[in-house]
Design brief:
It is a single chain. The chain is of the alpha/beta class. It has one domain: Alpha-Beta Barrel (TIM Barrel). Helix content is 42%, strand content 19%. It is built from ten helices and 14 strands. It has an eight-stranded parallel barrel. Strand 4, helix 3 and strand 5 form a beta-alpha-beta unit. Helix 8 packs parallel to helix 9.
């Protein structure tokens, strides 16, 4: 499909979006946003995302509201509790429930955190996996099992962490090794790169450029809390900061205008302010498309 960009240049959108399950700018659907979004369905939102654990087997009024959205927007899901790096047995019942949920609502993609959240029970936090070769093989085996059950590929997200348990491998090296060993995809979180770069003292662009372009399915962008000059906490409770916007722009310059989802989990501003951030994503994507077209 050919479209005209803002400066009348023709852009081949099919070529741009061929590896992605969705396109454009997305918004994380949270229960606190349901009513306001239903009253004024935003045309600037191209897709939405939920955590499947929050919606599986939810019926009644909430279930009907969720169906209202899945009938109008493309959806991806981002899991919270698969605990892919856990020493505990894989929760295959959850995977089968997710498979049914994806089929019921025509969900286009499932991603999970490259972390663990359980051992003898849920820890309700994203714990860092040791960056070791043994962990690569352990996680990859579990990812392959998940993909076998779902009968489709999944994506893993680079996560924020605060105290690595074993850094035998670097973070980027570990992420790449898991993706390669498991032959799965990547959901790249731009905010997490910024948070980790400050907390662990590395260069954002060095990490960004090590990520495998062919495995990227979409991006996340979000805000974080500034605890101290050298400490950021990944909260999703604030507006996106300037450093994350700048890195997102550079990510588009490097990878192209990858579909990008805005996350906000609490401290919700007025809906129009939230949609302004979605528009900012689209503006940066369009700028990237124009530059691509001018050089193409």
């Amino acid at each position: 499909m050919l479209v005209f960009s803002g400066n009348s240049q023709v852009v081949d959108m099919d070529k741009t979006n061929r590896q992605y399950p969705v396109h454009g700018a997305g918004l994380g659907l949270r229960r606190a946003l349901l009513n306001s979004l239903m009253e004024n369905p935003p045309s600037e939102v191209d897709f939405m995302e939920v955590a499947p654990e929050n919606w599986i087997q939810v019926g009644g009024i909430l279930g009907k509201k969720f169906r209202w959205f899945t009938e109008r927007y493309p959806f991806v899901i981002h899991g919270l509790s698969l605990s892919i790096g856990s020493p505990a047995p894989l929760n295959e019942k959850l995977v089968y429930d997710i498979k049914d949920f994806m089929q019921e609502h025509d969900i286009r993609m499932y991603s999970e955190h490259l972390s663990y959240t359980s051992d003898d029970g849920q820890l309700y936090d994203l714990m860092p996996i040791p960056f070791t070769e043994d962990a690569v093989k352990w996680v990859a085996d579990r990812v392959r099992r998940v993909q076998d059950i779902l009968e489709q590929r999944i994506a893993l997200e680079n996560v924020s962490f605060y105290a690595p348990t074993d850094a035998t491998l670097g973070e980027a090296e570990f992420v790449n090794a898991v993706l390669e060993e498991a032959d799965c995809d990547l959901m790249l979180d731009i905010n997490n790169i910024v948070v980790n770069s400050i907390n662990h003292g590395y260069d954002t662009h060095e990490f960004l450029y090590k990520m495998p372009a062919e495995r990227i399915r979409y991006f996340h962008i979000a805000g974080h809390h500034v605890e101290a000059e050298d400490l950021r906490v990944d909260t999703h409770g604030a507006s996106v900061d300037d450093q994350s916007w700048s890195l997102l722009k550079d990510a588009y310059a490097h990878f192209g205008p990858v579909p990008t989802l805005l996350e906000r989990d609490f401290n919700f501003p007025p809906l129009e302010e939230l949609l302004d951030e979605v528009r900012q994503v689209k503006s940066l994507q369009n700028e990237s498309l124009r530059k691509e077209a001018s050089h193409g």
